[in-house]
Amino acid sequence: MGLARGNLLTAAEQQTMDEKEQLKRKLGELEIELEDAKNLSSARERLLIANIKELNESYNALREKVNDIRERDKKIRDFTEVLTRANRLAALGELAASIAHEIKNPLISIQGFAKRIGQGQEPRKADVYAKFIENEAERLSTVLTKLLDFSRMAEPNRERLEVGRLVDDTVLFLEHHLTRFKNIELRIEKDQTLPAIYGDRVHIQQALVNLVMNGAQAMPDGGPLTVKTGRKDDAYAFIAVADKGMGIREEDMEKIFDSFFTTKGVGEGTGLGLSLVKTLIEANGGKIEVESQVNVGSTFTLLLPFA
Question: Is residue 150 part of a domain?
Answer without folding.
Answer: no
